[in-house]
């Protein structure tokens, strides 16, 4: 019997594995609950689709690609290392790119960043968390000087009187989380009538891409209706006047015209938050995945600051991190602009510290962000090889058809994965790696709590851990083996030293403390910090910053050719690109294929019927999906889940217009039309 945590989302529900079967375990975040994904997760361990031998694709002398064929580990790793050496020799270190994932353990995230910068010497590393958490991270850092997604324990929400949730649908994405919202009056901001919106006291349904205007409007209402916490604003913040100068122009009737949210609902939402003894503002991907996503989150934080919530006991602002290690994954150096400990790669003091820990004299600078990296692949000034760990970009990246074309232009694509994901199927070399319960490692959940996931079952013969893969490649690239340990605890001990003194300081965390069940929320030096910001924010003057942000509409408004807007999201049964959940028969039976939610009138105008097939077409691609007529949908909006492969990929449609601060693509709104198939 082994105590562990779920392989999927950032709630990291606690579970026990006995004889390959999972059962829920009592833990503060899930309180003995699991969702359908967690309950069925043991099926991942016995999936017949599991890869157990490396695969190699031969190329003919003229470069034509053959079929993938089984190979030994030595052949596969020798081949990869040999090509990497040649590319670096001929084109320099930045000719090799690395793409990581927010589901990788802290140890893997850390060693992957070190591998890229030390063994490859490349600046070209980023990860799929850029598509997930980057806007909230940028806005949190801007406001508070530190991004710990949820700077308080989830259980604080139990005593909240009112919670505003902008762009999150936890009733489907992380159902056990919803029990923490039961005592609060819930305000849900979402253009769709989601399962979470059904629970709301007030559902604000702004037109897609107008969240920022709505947040500015709620700040306006808060001030105009006398709810500004003047003492808090004076003592704990700076920048209010500049932010207010903009919000003052967003009077309720103007906000109603732009967003469609009635004035009375705006006022009701603010009143609920302002009149509660304890209140919280939370954001999710719906408000973050926009070309103005960082500013939208800043606008929600402005509202929270005006009401005196962040850093106040029992209240606060937080973001709902999505991926299993979405928090830890952005702290240990697999992000283009960061070094371990959430240090900035451009900070000379941070660089010197990490160089000392790694025993090197120099490190590359910042590289391209995730989409920019993918877009540059195979181009004259871009990487000619890409190593992918824990990510399935052919399904999950925006403008996915274009990304697949870019992958095809590479000299070398290497993918480490459990199964032949859609990205792995295009690779030159596929490396089968261990998963979740087959290895030990730490994860950091959405409340900044570090968790130990213990190895519970033996890995199938033939697979290796990602740490072993990195070691094998590093040695072949001329690195001393001991610089790339393969034991997770040894890697973690180095991570502790590398993070010491940084914003995300793990120096007081140890496997022994975690195994003993201690609740360790970073920073841990050596005491845990379940609630950050109670005394001061992390800016040098201790004050939080209002941000002077203004509304910008969607990057691609609808027009005569593409008269509707499309938005994307998740369903209960699937997780991210579906590479894992599509292996589980029970989940596939419940949600087997791509679909599009459409208002019945919109479907009728396009000649579509419920249950039939539709083509959803944008400037970037065409997705085939089964029509679901949903009466609560806006007539100008369609919704597609993004978990499905092939012609059903929602991301064939999405717009890679990037946020200028976070480099987040605009996943959540693009212009489309519907066609009969
Ligand atoms: Fe819990 Fe998330 Fe796993 Fe569901 S997917 S059991 S909510 S950790």
Automatic annotation (TrEMBL):
InterPro entries from the UniProt entry: Asp_de-COase-like_dom_sf, MoPterin_dinucl-bd_dom, Mopterin_OxRdtase, Mopterin_OxRdtase_4Fe-4S_dom, Prok_molybdopt-oxidoreductase
4Fe-4S Mo/W bis-MGD-type domain span: 1-47
Record keyword ATP-binding present: no
Cleavable signal peptide: none
Record's keyword terms, sorted: 4Fe-4S, Iron, Iron-sulfur, Metal-binding
Transcription regulation is among the record's keywords: no
SUPFAM superfamilies from the UniProt entry: ADC-like, Formate dehydrogenase/DMSO reductase, domains 1-3
PANTHER family found in the cross-reference section: NADH-QUINONE OXIDOREDUCTASE SUBUNIT G, RESPIRATORY NITRATE REDUCTASE
Protein name: Molybdopterin oxidoreductase
